[in-house]
Design brief:
Elements lengths: L1 H31 L5 E4 L4 E7 L5 E5 L10 H7 L5 E4 L16 H15 L5 E6 L1 H12 L4 E7 L12 H22 L2 H10 L4 H11 L3 H11 L7 H7 L3 H12 L1 H9 L9 E5 L5 H12 L4 E5 L7 H4 L1 H22 L2
Parallel strand pairs: 3-4, 3-5, 5-6, 6-7, 7-8
Antiparallel strand pairs: 1-2, 2-4
């Protein structure tokens, strides 16, 4: 009994030390990495918005399901050379406040609309969305068509992909939600911070064991995550690490995954307006059915294009940022030209 009590006391002390380690680390990160943009109140919740450049139309960059504005750093910097480039963090991600409502696509779109209004960024916009972000900007186009000048979809999530999940998809989605919730608890106890600190310090064994414990994967899991982050500018790596040491990032991801079937159901009912120019970039992994669907989507637009980036994976804006920047530039110039032609 004495040994049992000693073990319990030891474990409690270990947890308390982890919580203290997390609190101290989070406070230090807030001092080291203040928000690079501005915090905009949209009615009781603040979203982080970063802007570069100053010409019009404004280009709004929407990230994938778990990514922050840092995901767009290279693209935003280049786009700012010819127009206003804006990226933001959805609630629960990056520097934004935690989410306090279901993460359905309609809610996320309304929050973006509120953000742009509160920030004083006037339409029309060119919306650019990657993956899940492509679903969101497509819905924005339908809900607020008068605010849109053009749409660029970077390997977008198909609107119907999660409408009726297969048993395998349901298991995968459930596992993702479970792991994200588990990650939030591990972050509260400082274990995520400890593992990432060890990983960035060059150690592999401890982080790999933690990854295997939490996700059932080891080297492949770490290699995939580190590989994608490694494509971003080195100066943002410590910021990304700081964000993923916070429980809110895992909770935000879990909430978005929980809302994915509902978001898909909402998106499946929409059809892009014919008058909105659309350019779609597809990655090399796309199936013939996905390519066919995107070709049809482009064909319905007054000025639609579908480009297959056959040499690049899902993260086209990280693998080949110049291609994405060029695509945005062409859309912006097309919008400007149409404005000139429409003048009396």
């Amino acid at each position: 009994m004495t040994i049992f009590i000693a073990i319990i006391v030891f474990l409690l002390l270990l947890v308390l030390c982890g919580v203290a380690y997390q609190a101290i680390g989070a406070a230090r990160d807030r001092g080291r990495f203040p928000a690079p943009g501005r915090m905009v109140d949209i009615g009781g919740r603040r979203l982080h918005l970063i802007e570069s450049g100053g010409e019009r139309p404004a280009v709004i960059l929407e990230s994938g399901i778990s990514a922050s504005c840092l995901n767009w750093t290279r693209v935003r910097t280049e786009v700012a050379r010819f127009t206003l480039a804006c990226a933001y963090d959805r609630a629960g991600l990056g520097w934004s406040d935690p989410a306090d409502s279901p993460r359905l696509a309609s809610r996320l779109v309304d929050e973006l609309h509120a953000l742009l209004g509160a920030a004083g960024i006037a339409p029309p916009y060119v919306l650019v969305g990657h993956s899940f972000g492509g679903l969101l900007v497509s819905m924005y186009t339908v809900r607020y068509p008068d605010e849109l000048a053009g749409l660029v979809l970077v390997d977008p999530l198909a609107s119907r992909e999660w409408l009726r999940p297969t048993p395998e998809q349901s298991r995968m989605l459930g596992r993702g939600i479970t792991l994200a919730r588990r990650g939030a608890w591990l972050a509260r106890m400082g274990m995520v911070r400890f593992a990432l600190a060890r990983l960035t310090g060059g150690a592999r064994r401890v982080p790999k064991r933690i990854a295997r414990l939490t996700s059932g994967a080891g080297e492949s899991f770490l290699a995939r995550i580190v590989g994608e982050v490694g494509k971003m500018p080195p100066e943002v790596w410590p910021m990304i690490q700081a964000h993923w040491c916070l429980p809110k990032s895992f909770e935000g991801l879990a909430a978005a995954l929980e809302g994915l079937p509902g978001s898909s159901a909402e998106a499946a009912r929409i059809e892009l307006p014919h008058a909105i120019p659309v350019t779609i970039l597809s990655a090399k992994h796309c199936t013939p059915a996905e390519l066919s669907e995107r070709e049809a989507m482009a064909a319905k637009s007054v000025r639609g294009r579908h480009i297959v980036a056959a040499n690049y994976g899902h993260w086209i804006h990280l693998d080949e940022p110049d291609l994405v920047v060029e695509t945005i530039y062409e859309m912006v110039e097309s919008v400007r030209a149409s404005k000139v032609q429409s003048r009396p």
